[in-house]
Specification:
With 191 residues, this protein is mostly helical. The protein folds into two domains: 58 residues, Fe,Mn superoxide dismutase (SOD) domain (Helix Hairpins, Orthogonal Bundle); 99 residues, minor pseudopilin epsh fold. 48% of the residues lie in helices and 11% in strands. It is built from eight helices and three strands. The chain is globular, with a radius of gyration of 16 Å. The two termini are 30 Å apart. The model has no long low-confidence stretch (mean pLDDT 95). Bound molecules: manganese (II) ion (MN).
Length: 191
Amino acid sequence: MAFELPKLPYAYNALEPAISKHTLEFHHDKHHAAYVNNLNNLIIGTEFENLDLVDIILKTKGGIFNNAAQVWNHTFYFDQFGKNKIEKLSGPLLIAIHASFGSFEEFKEKFSVAAKTLFGAGWIWLVKKPNGSLDIIQTTNAENPLTERLTPILTCDVWEHAYYLDYQNKRPDYVGYFWSIIDWEVISNRY
Ligand code: MN
């Protein structure tokens, strides 16, 4: 069963000025689409052909893993935004953030530093550990917290293709704007 590229859950210009229509057209329609197509081509005729995406991520390495994880990571990334649905965070996730980081501002600062300082291509994640506490981790290339038995809550794509058309080398500016487009209702439901 072939995987399909999920549609963006908002218009291409919905995240401006944080992320431009131009960037989303390339990031979703070209990069995310390429990972889906590559994955479908790589699994044809293999034992992975009929597995769901998470099982493929957990059971593979190399090219199949890289494309499967990038399909999952990008769907998770694009689903967490929505400029017109911004709500202040509250409830159990905010309580957990206070318990793990001291305050929301300290969490935001620690996550932002992790996003600005990851060397090369990768992802920054807020994750829930099996004991319910939270942590911030960096992964390189396609690596994904699911393989470490961690539950992803929030992610920031810091591959250059995520921001270079809008910000060029200024990754810190992209990270700063990142906070303005997060749909905290989606994030809370992941906790
Ligand atoms: Mn990306």
